[in-house]
Amino acid sequence: MKSHRTASHRLPRRLAAVAGLALLTLAGAASAGETVIRTAHGDVAALDAPKPGSAAAAKAAQAAPFATARQRAAVKPLVWETRGEAASPAALKALDAPTGPAASAPGGSAPAFNNYLARQHFPQVWNKLDALDAQKAAAPTAALGGEKDGAHYAYTRFPGNYYTSQWKASPWNKIGKLYFTKPGGASSYCTAQVSSGTNVLTTAAHCVYTFGSGWNSNFVFVPAERYGEAPYGKFGWSTARVPTNWISQGTRRWDVAVIKLTGEQTTGIPVINYVGWLGRAWNQPYSLYTYSHGYASNLSTQYTNICAGQTYDSPSEGTNVVVQGCDMTYGASGGAWLINYTPNSNAGNQVNSVVSGPHIGAFGTAWVGARFNDDNIVALCTAIGC
């Protein structure tokens, strides 16, 4: 992905009405610091974090809305908007024609001493989680209900990093909560995951840019968050990318974003040194057995849940959108849809889509995600350097 040349073009406000830039202004004027990056696969909108020492950076640091577990616990999940894109006959025919050759990128492991490192850096958090795990050991499934829910679409749901044996291991420790401030000032959260050895997150575009309003801000990522605690620390951001087509159209096929993280807020250590990273896959078939993850508020905001089932395409959703049965809702936005699911391993576990929202007419029984392909994830990774 790194071989494509990119060029960054400043987006002047005075040209906002020009037809060539109209796609960036249909949802509102461009934000300060926003640029457009041209790639061989499409245009990507980019936003950089405030520069250290600037007034904007000082204001963000003073606010620090997600610094403590108490502050994060008060944050509400991002609510879905139900938008679909009905497919034309030509688009339906194109469902069988992949954008490009199927491809993938491998995940990677943190250093062998990663959990020891995290325990040394965040001892109070690890001690608290150890105590919670000991309390749960007597009745580990008491609060979970059934794992199979008899949903409208065939799938199986089960807890993710709820279990002591899982939250410290791959792939679960690479998935976490992404906190942010919406353009209107309200705080919210989505799900996101480390998906590159260059400390890049994948998540949903609507978690990064609020359609019709503008860029979200103050991004803070907490990998493997459970019970409000941050066992591997908290990470700020340096730059974010969304497809320009998300800004102009806001439809599901473009609902993908990437964010590059800065070092942990107290130690300065990169996130991959604590948890490693997941692989990615793109231009894959529409129908694959997939494990989708999320901090779904209708089940629990304290840990992730996983829906496992076959994905498929739908004429009502249009091209490059995949559907899967699942009853998770708000808060799961941006969560990884993993193919080649390989528990307790850094092999496989490739992000092939992220949670976008409910399948049309099936809220709470099925959801959709953008099918990773050249036009979205390849363009984004080219623009940010996955």
Automatic annotation (TrEMBL):
Record's keyword terms, sorted: Signal
InterPro entries xref list: Glutamyl_endopeptidase, Peptidase_S1_PA, Peptidase_S1_PA_chymotrypsin
Signal peptide limits: 1-32
The keyword Signal appears for this protein: yes
Keyword Signal attached: yes
Name the record gives this protein: Peptidase
Species in which this protein is naturally found: Lysobacter yananisis
